[in-house]
Amino acid sequence: GVPLATAGVLAGLYSLPASVFRALGGWMSDKWGARFVMYFTFITSLIILFVMSYPQTSYIVQGIPNADGSARTIEFSFGLPLWGFVSLSVILGFVMSLGKAAVYKHIPVYYPGHVGAVGGLVGMIGGLGGFVLPIAFGILLDLFHVWSMVFMLMFIIVGVSTIWMHVAIRRMERQKYPEMTKDTDLSDLPQKPIPEPMP
Known about the structure:
With 199 residues, the protein is mainly alpha-helical. The protein has a single domain, classed as MFS general substrate transporter like domains (Growth Hormone, Chain: A). The protein is built from six helices and two strands, in the order H-H-H-E-E-H-H-H. It has a two-stranded antiparallel sheet with strand order 1-2. Helix 3 (34-53) runs antiparallel to helix 6. It is globular. Keywords: Membrane, Nitrate assimilation, Transmembrane, Transmembrane helix.
């Protein structure tokens, strides 16, 4: 373990980029589109959370028996060292800060008549997440006694959110532009002309 003060500093290394780089996420959303930034955020987060959710594990592999008939085993273990865990946490905070800005970029595009209400709803969900998730983390830890269960839960949440976002946006596009016969990348800005699907 590490001293409590050191643990607090290391925990703060996640919160710092998660807050500081929101402006960069807004700039990227303006330049490349909020959807691109959201996909980048979700996919990168899924990869990081998958690695972080893997618990400290030891393996014993039964190999080919030796010439004298004795068993041959191969032993190895997997686990993130402290520096690797902290590094992934900082990167996760960074990419999530980009996604926060992209979410608010989406609101006036897909809900132009309800910007205030949807923005308030997004803020409410974020606040509830900060209240509910720590409780869920504690429950999972009590049930399974595995520290990485919290990241397994986050991996599931991010995975479901990625699929939900993709399906919802494609459905809205097909309703607004029924002439589309297949998926294509549309502009995030409704005032721009809609490109024709590639042949």
